[in-house]
Amino acid sequence: MKDVDLHLLQALLREAESRLNRKDTPNEKLANEFSLLIEHARSLQTRLDQSETRIRQLENLVDMDELTGLYNRRGFTRQLKQALASGERHTHPTQVIIADLDGFKQTNDQYGHAAGDAILRHFARLIQKQLRGADFAARLGGDEFAVVLRHATTDGTASFIKRLQSTLGRSAVLWQHQKLPVQASFGFATSTEDAGMAQLLNLADQDMYRHKHAHRTMPDETAPRQPRKRRDVDAA
Q1: pLDDT for the residue 236
Q2: According to the UniProt record, where is the region Disordered (predicted)?
Q3: Which top CATH class is 73-213?
Q4: Which of 14, 36, 41, 155 shows a CA-CA span of 20 to 30 A to 25?
C-alpha cells in the first residue's frame, strides 16, 4: 500500500463504496476485498495525518527558543512575513518593537550564566503576559527581543511599552538571596506599503539604540519611525 498513489487510492475507495452500496451486492469475496481496501486506506490516511502533525511539531521546535519559549530568529522571520502580508491585504499597519536588556552582560559576568538565563526567562514571561491573541514575540539572540503588534497604532504601541516598562520597574529576579533588577531599552517602527522587512527591523533597532545610548527607556514619540527609503534586499 505504501507505493499506491494517494489519488488512485481515493478513486478505488470511491468505486469500492459505490459498488458496496448498490443493490446488486457483490459476492462475499469481493466484499471482503473492498473492506480490506477501505481498512488499508484508512490506515494510510491515519499515518499521513500523523506524519503531518509530526512535521508541524518539528517545525515548531525549530522555530522556538528553547530557553524562553518565544520564537527564535527563524520563527520570528516566518511570522513577521505573514503578519506584514496580512497587514497589506487588510490595510492595517504592523508595529515592530525591538528590546535590549540594559546591563545584561555585567550581570551575566558577575552572577553567572544561570542568573542571566533566569533574567531572560523572566523578561520573556513579562512580555507574554502583555500580548494579545494576534501578537507575538521572539528572542532574536542574546539579550535582544522583538515584539510584533498586528493591530496597534503608534500610540497603542507606546502604551504597550510603557506598561511593560512599568512592570519591569516593579519586578526583579531573586537570585541567591539577592534581587536582580531587570531593565530594558525599547524602540519601534511602523510598517508602510513601500518598506521592506529589513528596513522596518533596522529602523526599530536604530530607535532602540538611540534610547539605550541616551540612557532612556521610553521611545521618543516625536522621532520618525516610518521608513523613508526602501532597501533592495529584504531580510530572509
Answers
A1: 38
A2: 212-236
A3: alpha beta
A4: 41
pLDDT band of residue 153 (cuts 50, 70, 90) is very high
Closest CA to 93 of 196, 213, 190, 231: 190
Cell 519601534, residue located: 188
- CA distances 210 to 46, 100, 101, 166, 214, Å, are 54, 12, 14, 20, 6
List strand residue ranges (DSSP E) for the chain, in order. Answer: 95-101, 136-141, 144-149, 172-175, 178-181, 184-190
Return the C-alpha cell found at 46. Answer: 491515519
Range 153-156, long-range pairs (CB < 8 A, 24+ positions): 153/93, 153/95, 154/95, 154/188, 154/190, 154/221, 154/225, 156/95
Orientation of helix 28-63 relative to helix 73-89, angle to 10°: 100
Q: Where are the domains of the chain?
A: 6-63, 73-213
